[in-house]
Design goal:
- Helices cover about 35% and strands about 20% of the residues.
- The chain is α+β, with helices and mostly antiparallel strands and about 625 residues long.
- Among the domains are: about 60 residues, no CATH class; about 200 residues, no CATH class.
- The strands form 7 sheets. Strands 1-21-3-17-18 form a 5-stranded antiparallel β-sheet, with no helix packed on it. Strands 6-5-9-10 form a 4-stranded antiparallel β-sheet, with helices on one face. Strands 12-11-15-16 form a 4-stranded antiparallel β-sheet, with helices on one face.
- It is elongated and about 155 Å long.
C-alpha cells in the first residue's frame, strides 16, 4: 500500500515485505469489494445513459417540430399526395395559388380562380421629396439652398421661368453650374409638382435659406432622401408628439420622439401595438406607411393627427378587402369562397393565394409511399428501442464474472479483460422498475383506444408480434397501411397525431390527455416523463434523468452519481485505514528485529565472557 522504501529482515533474516503483503491480502478484500461495487454502479449508469441517448435521438428525430422532414405529430405528415400548381395563362411563371394536400384530401384536378387577394387596411404617407403644387411665377429670382452630406448650404438663384417645364430646366441648369451640386441632385416634374431626386449616396437637405413661397414650404429644412437612420428632426419635426393609433377597435398611444430616427419610430409603433400594426419606411418610394397585420374587409386603422415629418395625415386607412376565389374541386361544382386571409384550408387542401386575376390548375395525385415510409421509419426505430430495453430488463446475470480487481487485470491480456467485462455487464439492468414501467406504458400507448380516431390500429395494418421474445414489437402490413393512407387519410392522421385540448403536465396528471391524443403524441409524453430536463412542481426531472443523468444535465447530482460518490468516499477512507494497518505491521516487525538484535548482542557478549574465563 505504501511507497515508502523500507530495509527489513537484517537481524531476523525474515522476508518482512512478503509477510506484510500476505497479511494485507486479507485486509484488501473489503477494498476490492467496494471498488467492484463502484464499478458495477458506474456500468449501470453508463447503460442507462445509453438508453437515454437512444430515446433522446428518437425524440429529436420524430417528435421535435423543428425537424419537419420527419416530424410525426402534424396531420400534414400523413398526407399521401403529390401536388403541383400552374397558372393557366402563364405556365412558365409562378402560379397564382400554392396548394398542399393533407390527410383526407381527394385526388384529382382542381381549378382555382383568384379574383381578389385579402389585403390589410393601410395609411400611406406622402412622398418626402415632392413639392407642393407649383406656380412658376412664384419662383422668379428666388433661391434654393441644398446641403449635401451635412455640409454648408449651396445656394442657387433662379431666373424667371415661364412655366413648370422651364422651371425644372432652370433648376437643373443652376445645379449643373454648381460644382458641389453637379451630378448629385436633379429636379423632375411629378404632375403639378416638382420632385427632387438625389443621385448619390449623400444625404441632401433643402435648407431654410431657401427663399420660395408656399410651393416649397413642405420641403424646407428637410432631408429629401431619408433612410431609416435619419433623425425626425432632419425631416422638419420640431417637437415630440403622442399619436393615437386605433386598429380593429383597439387604441394605443405612441410617442413619436423628434430626437429619434425613423427606425426608432417604426419600432415604437410596432412594439406599442404588439405588431398588430406594421410600420414601414421605403427608401425606394420615400414613403412611410402603417398597415394592419390582419387582412380582410373587417380590418381597420386610424390615426388622430398629422405627422408631417413622416408624410402622415390624420384619418382612416384604406384598401382592406377579403380574398375572393372560385374553386372547382375534383369532380365537383365551382364554388365562390370568401376569406379574410390568403391562407386557408378546405376539404384537406391548404391554399395560399399569391396573385389575383389568375386562373390556376392544381393537380393532386395520390402517393401513399412517402407517408408509409415516414410511419415505417418511426415504427422501426421504436421497435429498436423496445427490443433494446426489453433485452436489458430480462437479461440474466452472468454468475462468476464480478468486475476484475487491479491485481487480476495484471495477469490478463486486453482482449481477455474486454471479454470478461462484457460478461460482467450482463444483467445489470435486469428487472429495473423505471425501464419496465416505461416499456409497459409505451406498449399500452399503441393499443389503448384513441377517442374520436374512427379507426383501430389493426384496421390500418399494424399489430403486435405474437412472438413473446420480441417484447411487443409492432408489425406492419404494408399493403393494408398504404390502402388506409389513401382511403382513410384523416383517420390515419388522427390515430397517430391527434392532439388533446389538455396540456401536458410534468406532475403526471395526464389521464384525460392520454385518452384524447393520438399514439405518437402519447409516446412523446411518455418519453418526456422519463427524459424531461425541466422540473415539475416537486423539483423533479424525468425519471431516468433523476436516476442516471446525462452529460451536461444533472450529470453529477443524480441517484447513481451520488452512489458512486459515496463509494469513492468509502474507498478513500479504506485506503487510509489500510495504509495505517500496513504501517502497524511494519512497526511490529521492526520491534521484532530490534528484539532479535538485542538478543543476538547479548548472546555474543555471553559467549565472549564464557570464552575469556577459560
Amino acid at each position: 500500500m505504501s511507497d515508502m522504501l523500507r530495509i527489513t529482515g537484517m537481524a531476523s533474516g525474515l522476508d518482512v515485505e512478503s509477510m506484510v503483503k500476505t497479511l494485507m491480502k486479507a485486509e484488501n478484500v473489503r477494498l476490492d469489494k467496494v471498488k467492484q461495487n463502484r464499478q458495477t454502479i458506474q456500468w449501470r449508469q453508463d447503460l442507462f445513459r445509453d438508453i437515454l441517448g437512444d430515446v433522446n435521438t428518437f425524440y429529436s428525430t420524430y417528435l421535435d417540430v423543428a425537424r419537419q422532414e420527419k416530424y410525426m405529430l402534424s396531420p400534414n405528415s400523413y398526407a399521401g399526395f403529390d401536388v403541383t400548381s400552374s397558372d393557366n395563362n402563364n405556365p412558365t411563371s409562378t402560379a397564382g395559388v400554392i396548394a398542399t394536400a393533407g390527410a383526407g384530401a381527394t385526388a384529382g384536378t382542381y381549378s382555382v380562380e383568384v379574383t381578389k387577394l385579402a389585403k390589410p387596411s393601410v395609411i400611406t404617407g406622402s412622398i418626402v421629396n415632392v413639392s407642393g403644387d407649383i406656380t412658376a411665377a412664384n419662383w422668379a429670382g428666388k433661391k434654393i439652398g441644398f446641403s449635401v452630406g451635412g455640409g454648408a448650404a449651396e445656394i442657387i438663384q433662379l431666373d424667371n421661368p415661364g412655366d413648370i417645364n422651364a422651371l425644372k430646366d432652370n433648376i437643373n441648369s443652376k445645379i449643373t453650374a454648381n460644382a458641389n451640386l453637379k451630378g448629385k441632385i436633379e429636379a423632375v416634374i411629378d404632375g403639378t409638382k416638382l420632385k427632387f431626386n438625389v443621385l448619390s449616396n449623400d444625404s441632401v437637405k433643402i435648407t431654410n435659406d431657401t427663399d420660395i413661397v408656399t410651393d416649397l414650404d413642405n420641403l424646407k429644412g428637410r432631408v429629401i432622401n431619408p433612410s431609416g437612420s435619419t433623425l425626425l428632426s432632419d425631416l422638419g419635426m420640431t417637437s415630440s408628439t403622442d399619436l393615437t393609433i386605433t386598429y380593429n377597435g383597439t387604441s394605443k398611444i405612441v410617442t413619436i420622439d423628434n430626437t429619434k430616427t425613423i427606425n426608432d419610430a417604426i419600432m415604437a409603433i410596432n412594439s406599442a401595438t404588439s405588431s398588430n400594426v406594421i410600420a414601414k419606411f421605403s427608401q425606394l418610394t420615400g414613403q412611410f406607411s402603417l398597415s394592419t397585420s390582419d387582412t380582410g374587409s373587417a380590418a381597420t386603422i386610424k390615426i388622430d393627427k398629422d405627422i408631417s415629418a413622416l408624410g402622415l395625415k390624420a384619418g382612416d386607412g384604406v384598401g382592406q378587402q377579403d380574398a375572393v376565389v372560385n374553386i372547382q374541386p375534383a369532380g365537383g361544382i365551382k364554388s365562390t369562397v370568401t376569406r379574410s386571409k390568403n391562407i386557408f384550408s378546405i376539404d384537406g387542401i391548404s391554399y395560399t393565394l399569391v396573385k389575383e386575376g389568375t386562373t390556376n390548375t392544381i393537380n393532386v395525385n395520390s402517393n401513399p409511399q412517402n407517408t408509409f415510409d415516414k410511419i415505417k421509419s418511426f415504427i422501426d426505430k421504436y421497435n429498436e428501442i423496445i427490443d433494446k430495453v426489453s433485452k436489458k430488463i430480462n437479461e440474466k446475470t452472468a454468475k462468476g464474472f464480478a468486475p476484475l480487481t487491479d491485481e487480476q487485470k495484471k495477469s490478463m491480456q486486453d482482449e481477455e479483460i474486454k471479454a470478461w467485462e462484457a460478461k460482467s455487464k450482463e444483467g445489470l439492468l435486469r428487472g429495473d422498475n423505471e425501464l419496465k414501467t416505461m416499456l409497459t406504458r409505451m406498449r399500452s400507448a399503441f393499443f389503448d383506444s384513441v377517442q374520436g380516431a374512427g379507426v383501430t390500429l389493426k384496421e390500418i395494418g399494424l399489430d403486435t408480434s405474437s412472438d413473446v421474445t420480441q417484447g411487443g414489437k409492432i408489425l406492419i402490413d404494408e399493403a393494408k397501411l398504404k390502402s388506409a393512407i389513401q382511403t382513410k387519410g384523416n383517420q390515419v392522421a388522427n390515430i397517430f397525431s391527434k392532439a388533446s385540448s389538455t396540456a401536458y403536465s410534468a406532475d403526471g396528471d395526464n389521464k384525460v390527455r392520454y385518452g384524447e391524443e393520438g399514439i405518437f403524441q402519447r409516446i412523446k409524453d411518455i418519453m418526456l416523463d422519463y427524459t424531461r430536463t425541466t422540473r415539475n412542481t416537486n423539483g423533479k426531472k424525468g425519471a431516468l434523468i433523476e436516476k442516471a443523468g446525462i452529460k451536461g444535465n444533472q450529470e453529477f447530482t443524480n441517484l447513481l452519481s451520488k452512489q458512486i460518490a459515496e463509494k469513492d468516499r468509502i474507498i478513500s477512507d479504506l485506503v487510509r485505514k489500510l495504509a495505517d494497518k500496513e504501517n502497524s505491521y511494519y512497526i511490529k516487525f521492526s520491534k521484532l528485529e530490534q528484539a532479535m538484535q538485542n538478543s543476538n548482542s547479548q548472546s555474543s557478549w555471553l559467549s565472549q565472557q564464557l570464552g575469556g574465563s577459560n
